[in-house]
Design brief:
Rossmann fold; 235 residues; 4 strands; 8 helices
């Protein structure tokens, strides 16, 4: 759904766009401050982005490639030498830290027991399972799960819920750009539900985890993969 369609379907919705470089701590802080200025608080936060390197055996991965992928997917460092990829869209650690700080200042949400807010970050099935030739990517995505689970333990007592979604093969432009032409058909054929994922499959799960219906879900890494994780060694 486009921004125009969203506003047309839900005319009461208010959308604020903040432009900045979220690899820069000050820009991340300004983003949070602008959100609080517009809406009074940060109830829900989603950290959704990443870059995918080419499949390369671990022994052939350059240190510079590892630094770039982990820097973008995990921490939020901005790099300009990743062809065709807008790295300023792929930050998690800096954003999650700023989101937690803001939520710690807030009163609990009405109707949510003691919950001050919810954060959900998107990792990958590769962060949970082996993925041939993708040691660098898997490391970067596993790290998101690691610090999210730790933050969930540390800040759960303060009323902040933190979870992770791990998509399987989702039919996006990035997936098709970084996969062989035959990959979509082959992967759909071995996925138990016999199709690739759709962006809305992930969106609906993110919406659920942000809602009061998920108020007792904390520190989880949930695969959304049509059962592909049952087929070991294929991602």
């Amino acid at each position: 759904m486009t921004r125009g369609q969203l506003c047309s379907t839900y005319p009461e919705i208010v959308i604020k766009v903040h432009q900045g470089d979220i690899s820069i701590e000050e820009d991340v802080q300004r983003m949070i401050e602008d959100c609080v200025k517009a809406f009074g608080r940060v109830d829900y936060a989603l950290n959704v982005a990443g870059v995918v390197p080419s499949r390369t055996p671990h022994t052939e991965v350059d240190v510079s490639t590892y630094d770039r992928v982990v820097g973008v997917n995990e921490y939020g460092v901005s790099f300009t030498d990743l062809p065709g990829i807008d790295t300023n869209k792929a930050k998690t650690w800096l954003c999650q830290r700023a989101q937690i700080k803001q939520m710690m200042r807030q009163d609990p949400l009405p109707g949510y027991s003691n919950i001050r807010g919810s954060i959900t970050s998107v990792s990958s099935l590769a962060g949970l399972n082996a993925s041939s030739g993708m040691s660098t990517y898997s490391a970067s995505k596993a790290s998101i799960i690691g610090f999210a689970k730790t933050d969930a333990q540390d800040y759960g007592p303060h009323g902040i819920r933190i979870n992770v979604v791990c998509p399987g093969m989702i039919d996006t432009e990035l997936f098709r750009q970084t996969s062989p032409k035959e990959a979509p058909q082959k992967l759909a054929a071995i996925t138990p539900v016999r199709r690739l994922g759709r962006p809305e499959d992930i969106g609906l799960l993110l919406a659920f985890l942000s809602s009061s219906k998920a108020s007792f879900i904390q520190g989880t890494a949930i695969p959304c993969d049509g059962g592909l994780s049952l087929q070991r060694g294929v991602i």
